[in-house]
Structure formats: structure tokens, C-alpha cells
Design a protein that fits this description.
The protein is mainly β. The chain has two helices and 69 strands. It folds into seven domains: 214 residues, Jelly Rolls (Sandwich); 108 residues, Immunoglobulin-like (Sandwich); 92 residues, Immunoglobulin-like, CATH 2.60.40.10; 111 residues, Immunoglobulin-like (Sandwich); 215 residues, Sandwich (Jelly Rolls), CATH 2.60.120.200; 64 residues, Immunoglobulins (Immunoglobulin-like, Sandwich); 77 residues, Immunoglobulin-like (Sandwich). It is extended and about 130 Å long.
């Protein structure tokens, strides 16, 4: 933008002479000098602000500006110039910008001052354009105003009508027009205007908005009879434009119009109307009037034209480039112009095409095509035909791609089904989009089925193992045979004539026919080994004879006579599939000792550490060395004999974690025989608190379950995982420091759907991910049986005891066969010496018992509640209510006639362990709520002792 200094001709001469003398000094620094209104109205468009120096020290037009000083505290952010999110005064794009920052409302303000000299003049009005500018994120607010130094001792007072509130990230703009300047400015040589932005209330978070100012105009009139020393008493007209050019309007089709752009025009001391004339190919308007290609006239009021927005749009009448200017003239000022450009382009239309008649129809193919008569004004970039068995096919269906351009083309359609109705149409794509020709319909030729066999083949089963068996096929008069297999029930589906089926000898991997029937063989052979079976499972097989004349879709199956057989696999023997004790030299890489890198190359390659880890009772404890993870990098894997669906896969290892990230990452996982990216049974670790970690488990990584218990860093732990997978889904379980017998539940568990179930498990991998922990790992084992994994001999647990109570005498009523002992418990604590088949209670509480056979133990008996002489043994019944049943978060207990005193409430699990206790005062009635949300879901025994008796109930939590 530029300054406008308006006066008589002789004044221009004096000004030019003064500038010539001062120019060398201005290049270094400028003395702060008020702008003298006696020389004409002040107009600033900030078009040279980019060259202004800090603190307004130099630059064309910077002389009358000055950094603001606090008065008395605000403004507090007055740096000239700041940038970005820095508070103070900033340079905009041909504008000046204010930014006040801070989260506290009213605490900070940014400002700058404009120095004015009204000697010999009366103060007139002020006008400017403003716009809020978004600043980072948030919705906090700021308030702008203009102040004048008209208060006592030159203090600043706010000008009426100048307050504007703005909100961050809510772009708004507007204008302050014809703001009356204070009469105290009349003749004032040291007038000062302060442009002030303060943090204000409103909004909840984030940053404050910026305030951009532009097109500033300040007017005055000469004091009657008192012209200034350099002013003969008149003021020249001044017309101000906000822009001298508009951005290029780009390419617009002939007959269409572009989006609008705008500029503003304003003026003071005008002697007549302002005329705005558009360039050829452009239209203009003011306000809500219609766009027009003719001139617009704006009439000033009392010589002033308030800032008026002129909208411009490009409406080309020809396909050519347009360059011109929107002329602004009249009002007594020199003519000015706003440059505009744009390019008209020829209108584009969809291509015009027709679909060819379909010919050369066979059982599986046909010939179609089309003709593109017109490209619609833009190149055809794709063409062909689309087809479907549904009407109105599109390019989202099957299609051909037959080159580009206009004219006729031919398309060959293949892969069709015989005896099927198809719909086809041509398509063409140009700059406008894709269009289609008319729809054609055709039916593929029928296939003559081969002759149907008359005699069914027979099937024999041999070499049955826990995971496989051999089928021998014989007889029948068909050229080929198809075998279906089903688990648990007879094959209940038949193949369809004219259909080919994909076979796979691994059960469940072949094509499924009906539900649960899988194709395990299809061909001319006589034997097939079926694999992927499960131990102790019944399998049924059916063999169908068929002929197909070696012709597609000619299959003719004999389904009225079928060869059938079945067999039950023996229970598969458990086995140890893998063991790794890192019995290699310290410093060697795992990739030099049978492990293969599958990710991370050789970055931070996993090496053998100098000492192994130890854990008492673990069979792979203290053997050889160990492996160390130090940072993100190489991932390695080892394969082992594949374990199929339905067989649990147990993995155990020793781990000592030094550090872990709070976000966690997995460091060990299993995978199928062909690893790829099918990572299953992932084991995680994450930092939880100072010096503590938690371990976690995941099936496929989409979500994780972590232990609630925290574990110490730099401590060796035994981790065991159990991964169960089959066609119904998967379950991954994690145990930490488990006992020799498999626990009923793990410390963490996660189930996933059947879509996450792998074909088998045959790989174990060590991983150093982006959030890799620093740890040592050792003693890795993989097995199909928990006892084999931990080297513990499996045992047959005795039956769970049933207990009868006769007074204080407790007796097991179902003694187990063989050498069995017992252990009695009171409130979950073993009673020393109480190992017989019966026990006499000596105190009140919850009693249970387990049966022992060698190292094996039964489940605990149901708890028996016993009250002893000296304790009120009356069973309370009146007003007793325990609810809800089942309970989830809270359990409410109510009873009447409980007496005066203290009631004790206890909750026991079925092992007799006390898991919760409360005491409450009772004054004849009891009403208490127990918080039970933290307890495991299951069955518990509630015992309430009151001064007048007791209550006992079984309660269920779920």
C-alpha cells in the first residue's frame, strides 16, 4: 500500500525537496515526527510495511509511528516487530497486525501509537478496515479498541465506537467508518492515537487471535480563517483503494463464471461521484446488487465515501486469456486501477458413445465394444465395456480397458459362467467424468454335461494318527473322484453339477461345501493323506465319482450313490516342540546360530549375553547363556514342528526387564509355519510406576490385556503363555510365576474372533520394536502340554470333596480311591495337622478341604460355615434380604431384629478364603451396602454375625 499526501502543487514541491535532503538520513533511522494534518488527510495502506525496521526506526511511512509504553501497566506486549505466535506488533501482508497472548483474561495487551499534528486544523473522522487472523489452536478471545491521549496529563481514553471483539479460529472482518475524532484534538500538535488489543474473557482453551489493520484514513478540516503556515486553507480530494491487483481468476469455461474476489474503495474531500468501470470479461457489483459488466457509480456524502466493498468475478465470453484493469475514477482525484487477469476455456461435456451389439457368444466369453462419436471437448482417457449379472453395470463391476481416444473399439469379455444372463454397456471417461452407452443383454451358451457315472467308488482309512490319516480310493466308474471331509458328523452336502471345487489335503483348508464339509481331494488318484486333524476326534468322509470330459463346467457328479467311511483319531501325545537355552558363545549373533532375521536387517542385531537366567524348578533354568535386547532393531525367528488348530500351544521363558516404555511394546510372539506378518500370542511389557512394570498379552495386537500386578525391574520372572486357536476363535492367556500345575485362570487373558485364527503355529519370534524394552531373555520352551513345558509329571487330580457337618464335626463323604490325604482350611488358611478325612471345628468361620494324591490336588470343597458355642447361633430370618442376585458392583444386605451392638460381615470364596470383611453398628435393624466391583466374578459365601444371630447366603457376582 502507499501513502497519499494531498495539498496544493507548491506543497508537493516543498515535500519533494525535503525528502531529497532527508533521504540519506532516513536510510539509517527516522526521527519520530507526527504527521501534520495541515498538509492533507492521512492515508496509510501499509504496502511498504515489509521494509519497516524494528521499533519503526525506518521505512517509508514509518516516521509517525512509535512503540507504545505502559500506561500505567498496559499495554504490556509492545515488541515491534514480533512474528508467528509472538506477542506485540507484527507485519501482515500489506497490513499491520496486533497479537496479545496469555491464558489470563485482561492480563496482557499489545499496542502501537500513531503521532498526529492537528495544528491549524479541526479533527475530523477516522476509518479503517480490520480482520481477525487465526493463531494456532483454541477459541480464546481478544478485544480491540482505539484510544486517544485526551485524558488528564495526556492519559489515553477509548474512542467511542471503536471496540471490536474477536475469537480465535473464527475468521471475521469489518470496518470502522466515520469514527469521530475528539474535539480535544483540534489544533493539538501532539495528538496521539493508540491502537490497542487486550486479552478478554470468553473461550476455553488455546491461543488468542490476531487483529489485522489496513486502509487507515484520518481527516481534518482547516480552522476557519487560520490556515496553516504551509496550507492555503483547502484539502485535496483523496480516493483510497485496498488493492491494486487481484489474484488471477484461473481457468473458467466460456459461459460460466468464477468465484468472486473483492477490493474496497473509500474517499474524503471528494468533489463528485466515483465511477468504477470493469474490464472486458469481468463483472462487478456492490452490496446485494446483481453482477454487471457495466460501470457502477458511487456517490459520496458531504464529500466522504465510506469504505465500500466491490465484488469482482470473471465471466469470459471467449476461450482466450483476459488481462485488464478495473478503473476507479472521479471525485476530483486522479484515476486509479485494480489489475485483473483470467483465462477463458472452451466448455467441456461428457463424451457421446453407443454400445455395440454383443457377438461371438460362447460358454465363457463374448465380444462387445462401442463407438465414441464425440470426446466432449476433452481427451477420452479410458474406454471399454462393463458387465454384470445385474442391470446397469458400472466400472465398479467387471470391466475391460480398451485404450483411449474417440472412435470404435472392440472388447473381449472372458471368465463368464455358462447359461447365464449378462448385462453389458460401453463406457468412456474424459475430464468431465465417466458415461455409459446403452445397455445390451446376452446369455452365455450352455455347457453339455459329461455322462454321469453309475457306480460309486469306495473309500478305506488307514495309518490313523492323532493328526493325520490315509484315504485309499477304489472302484466306481467315474473318471475322477471328489472327497469331502467333516468333523464330528456325517458329510451332509453334495457337489453341484457344472461346478469345479478346490481341494486341499489339510483339513479345513479346502473349499467348503455346505457347512463344515471340506474338499480334501479332487482328481484321478487313489490315495490322499489328510492332515491337520485333531486328536480324539471323529472324522467322516464321502467320495463322489464324476466325469467332466476335461471341459470346464461339464462336471457331472454321481450323488445318489456315495462311498463313505469314518475314523476316530487317537488322543495326540503331547510333545516339546522347541527349546532354546542360548548355549552359544557370548557375543555371537542369534542369526549365526539357527535364527533368521525377518525385520530390521542387522540393526542392533540380537546377540548372546554372557550369563543365563535362573528360576528354581524350571527345567531350562541356568543352562547356557541368554539373549539381550538393547534397542529398536532386528527381529528374528525360529521354526518348529507345526501345531494345528484345536491343540493348545504353550510357550514359556525367563525374562529380566531393565527398562520399558510407558506405552508398552511386544517382544516375543508366535506365528504360523509360514510367518509372513501373522504375528500371534504377542507378549508385552510396559512401565507402570517407578521401578515397576506390567506384562501383557495379545492375540493379534489389535488390543492388549495387562496384568493388574506390578513387577520389579531387574528381577527374573517365569512367563508362560497359552494360545488356543481353531475355527471358532482364539484365546491368549498369560501366567506369571505359575505353579507346577496349570492355573485355572491367568493374570491376563484376551479372546479374538475366528478371523484372527491362524492355519497353524510353527514359529517363535523375538522382536525389538519402536518401543522396545531393554531386557534379557532365556530358557524358551514351546510344548503342547503344560506339564511338559515345565517338566512336571502330569497327574490325575482327585475328585472334589463333599463335606457334611454334624454339629462341630466336619466329614468328607466321598473319599477318593487310592492313597489320598486331605488338608483342611479355615477362612482360606491351612490348619496345621488337619489332614484327616474329618475335622472337629474349634472356632467360628468358613471351613473347606482339598484332597491330595501325591503332587496332585483336587478343587476345594464348598465352604461350610460354622458357629461355635459362645457365639449366637440363632439363624436370623425376619426381614432378611440380600440383593441384587447376581450382583455386579454393590451387594445390599438388610435384616430385622438384629439386636443392639456390632454386626460383622464376611465374604468367603469357595476355597474358604476370606476376601472381604466389614463391621457395622446395628440398633435392631441392619442395612448395609458392600462394594464388590473389585472382586473376581464367581460364587461366594456371605456370613453376617449380629448380636441376635447370624445370616448365611450364597451370592453370585457377574
Amino acid at each position: 500500500m502507499r501513502h497519499f499526501y494531498r495539498s496544493h502543487a507548491y506543497r508537493h514541491g516543498l515535500l519533494a525537496l525535503a525528502l531529497a535532503l532527508l533521504l540519506p538520513l532516513l536510510a539509517v533511522a527516522q526521527t519520530k515526527e507526527p504527521y501534520r494534518l495541515s498538509g492533507g488527510n492521512y492515508t496509510e495502506r501499509y504496502d511498504a510495511i515489509a521494509a519497516w525496521a524494528a521499533d519503526f526506526a525506518s521505512g517509508q511511512g514509518a516516521a509517525p509511528y512509535q512503540a507504545a509504553t505502559p500506561s500505567p501497566v498496559l499495554p504490556s506486549q509492545n515488541k515491534v516487530f514480533s512474528s508467528g505466535t509472538g506477542s506485540g506488533v507484527q507485519k501482515g501482508s500489506e497490513s499491520i497486525v496486533l497479537l496479545a497472548t496469555g491464558s489470563t483474561d485482561g492480563q496482557n495487551a499489545a499496542a502501537f501509537d500513531l503521532l498526529l499534528d492537528f495544528s491549524g486544523t479541526r479533527a475530523g473522522i477516522l476509518s479503517l478496515d480490520w480482520a481477525s487472523v487465526s493463531n494456532s489452536t483454541g477459541n480464546r478471545k481478544a478485544t480491540f479498541s482505539i484510544q486517544a491521549n485526551t485524558g488528564a496529563d495526556g492519559t489515553f481514553e477509548e474512542l467511542a465506537g471503536t471496540t471490536v471483539e474477536i475469537t480465535n479460529n473464527d475468521p471475521t472482518n469489518g470496518a470502522l467508518t466515520s469514527i469521530a475524532l475528539p474535539s480535544a484534538f483540534d489544533g493539538k500538535a501532539d495528538a496521539r492515537l493508540r491502537f490497542f488489543l487486550i486479552t478478554s474473557s470468553g473461550g476455553t482453551t488455546g491461543s488468542r487471535p490476531k487483529m489485522s489493520l489496513d486502509n487507515l484514513v484520518i481527516t481534518s478540516t482547516p480552522t476557519e480563517g487560520e490556515p496553516g503556515t504551509t496550507d492555503p486553507g483547502t484539502t485535496a480530494p483523496a480516493v483510497a483503494l485496498s488493492k491494486t491487483s487481484l489474484p488471477d481468476f484461473g481457468q473458467v469455461e466460456v459461459g460460466a463464471v468464477s468465484a468472486g474476489q473483492s477490493f474496497t474503495v473509500s474517499g474524503e474531500n471528494l468533489s463528485g461521484d466515483i465511477t468504477i468501470t470493469p474490464a472486458a470479461g469481468f463483472e462487478i457489483r456492490v452490496g446485494d446488487n446483481a453482477f454487471a459488466c457495466c460501470a457502477i457509480t458511487l456517490g459520496p456524502e458531504e464529500g466522504s465515501l465510506a469504505s465500500t466493498t466491490v465484488e469482482v468475478r470473471f465471466a469470459p465470453g471467449a476461450a482466450e486469456a483476459f488481462t485488464g484493469s478495473i478503473e476507479v475514477s472521479g471525485g476530483g482525484d486522479e484515476a486509479q486501477a485494480v489489475a485483473v487477469t483470467g483465462t477463458g476455456i472452451a466448455a467441456l461435456y461428457p463424451a457421446t458413445l453407443t454400445s455395440a451389439t454383443v457377438t461371438e457368444i460362447t460358454t465363457s466369453s463374448a465380444v462387445a465394444g462401442g463407438t465414441i462419436a464425440s470426446d466432449g471437448g476433452s481427451e477420452v482417457t479410458a474406454r471399454g465395456v462393463v458387465w454384470s449379472t445385474e442391470v446397469n453395470p458400472t466400472t465398479a463391476d467387471s470391466k475391460t480397458a480398451d485404450g483411449t481416444g474417440s472412435g470404435a473399439f472392440t472388447s473381449t469379455i472372458s471368465g463368464l459362467m455358462h447359461s447365464t444372463v449378462y448385462y453389458v454397456r460401453a463406457y468412456a471417461t474424459n475430464a468431465v467424468g465417466t458415461v455409459y452407452g446403452q445397455e445390451r443383454t446376452f446369455t452365455t451358451a450352455a455347457v453339455q454335461l459329461a455322462a454321469e457315472p453309475t457306480t460309486a467308488p469306495e473309500i478305506a482309512i488307514s495309518e490313523v494318527t492323532g493328526a493325520s490319516l490315509l484315504l485309499t480310493l477304489s472302484g466306481g466308474d467315474g473318471a475322477k473322484r471328489l472327497v469331502l471331509a467333516r468333523q464330528g458328523a456325517a458329510v451332509d452336502a453334495s457337489p453341484a453339477d457344472g461346478t469345479a471345487y478346490a481341494a486341499n489335503a489339510t483339513f479345513r483348508q479346502g473349499q467348503e461345501v455346505g457347512t463344515g464339509n471340506f474338499v480334501v481331494y479332487n482328481g484321478t488318484g487313489t490315495e490322499v493323506e489328510v492332515t491337520g486333524l485333531r486328536g480324539a476326534s471323529e472324522y467322516h468322509f464321502a467320495v463322489f465319482a464324476y466325469n467332466d470330459n476335461d471341459t470346464e463346467f461339464a462336471q457331472n457328479y454321481l450323488t445318489t450313490a456315495v462311498g463313505r467311511a469314518s475314523a476316530t483319531t487317537p488322543e495326540a501325545a503331547g510333545f516339546v516342540a522347541f527349546e532354546e537355552n542360548f548355549n552359544y558363545a557370548a557375543g555371537e549373533l542369534l542369526t549365526d546360530n539357527g535364527w533368521a532375521a525377518h525385520s530390521g536387517g542387522s540393526t542392533n542385531a540380537i546377540a548372546v549375553a554372557s550369563e543365563g537366567l535362573s528360576y528354581e524348578g524350571y527345567p531350562s533354568s541356568g543352562i547356557g547363556n541368554s539373549a539381550s535386547f538393547t534397542a529398536s532393531g532386528q527381529d528374528v525367528n525360529r521354526s518348529f514342528e507345526a501345531i494345528g488348530p484345536g491343540t493348545p500351544v504353550y510357550a514359556s521363558f525367563l525374562v529380566n526387564v531393565a527398562t520399558a516404555s510407558s506405552g508398552g511394546d511386544y517382544f516375543l510372539h508366535l506365528g504360523p509355519s509360514s510367518l509372513g506378518t501373522t504375528f500371534r500370542n504377542r507378549v508385552y511389557v510396559r512401565a507402570s510406576s517407578e521401578g515397576k512394570v506390567q506384562f501383557g498379552i495379545s492375540g493379534s495386537g489389535s488390543e492388549q490385556a495387562y496384568t493388574t500386578t506390578e513387577y520389579n525391574v531387574n528381577t527374573t520372572y517365569l512367563l508362560v503363555t497359552k494360545y488356543v486357536f481353531d475355527e471358532t476363535g482364539t484365546t491368549a492367556t498369560l501366567y506369571v510365576n505359575p505353579a507346577g500345575t496349570e492355573p485355572a485362570a491367568g493374570q491376563a487373558e484376551l479372546a479374538e474372533g475366528a478371523d484372527k485364527s491362524p492355519s497353524d503355529i510353527g514359529t517363535i519370534a523375538l522382536r525389538q520394536g519402536s518401543g522396545s524394552p531393554v531386557l534379557t531373555i532365556d530358557g524358551i520352551r514351546v510344548a503342547t502340554d503344560y506339564s511338559l513345558l515345565l517338566g512336571v509329571e502330569a497327574c490325575q487330580a482327585p475328585a472334589t470333596p463333599t463335606v457334611a457337618a454334624q454339629g462341630m464335626e466336619l466329614t468328607v463323604t466321598n473319599p477318593a480311591e487310592g492313597t489320598v490325604s486331605y488338608q483342611w482350611y479355615l477362612n482360606g488358611t491351612a490348619i496345621e495337622g488337619a489332614t484327616g478325612i474329618s475335622y472337629t471345628a474349634t472356632e467360628a468361620g468358613s471351613y473347606s478341604v482339598i484332597a491330595l494324591a501325591g503332587e496332585c490336588s483336587s478343587e476345594a470343597s464348598a465352604a461350610q460355615e460354622v458357629t461355635v458355642t459362645g457365639i449366637q447361633d440363632k439363624l436370623l430370618k425376619k426381614g432378611v434380604a440380600v440383593y441384587p442376585v447376581p450382583a455386579t458392583d454393590r451387594l445390599r444386605i438388610q435384616a430385622g431384629e438384629t439386636g443392639q451392638g456390632t454386626a460383622t460381615i464376611r465374604l468367603y470364596d469357595l476355597l474358604g478364603r476370606q476376601v472381604l470383611t466389614r463391621q457395622a453398628r446395628t440398633s435392631g435393624e441392619l442395612d448395609i451396602v458392600l462394594e464388590v466391583r473389585s472382586l473376581r466374578r464367581g460364587t461366594y459365601v456371605l456370613v453376617v454375625e449380629t448380636p441376635q444371630g447370624f445370616i448365611t447366603r450364597k451370592v453370585m457376582l457377574q
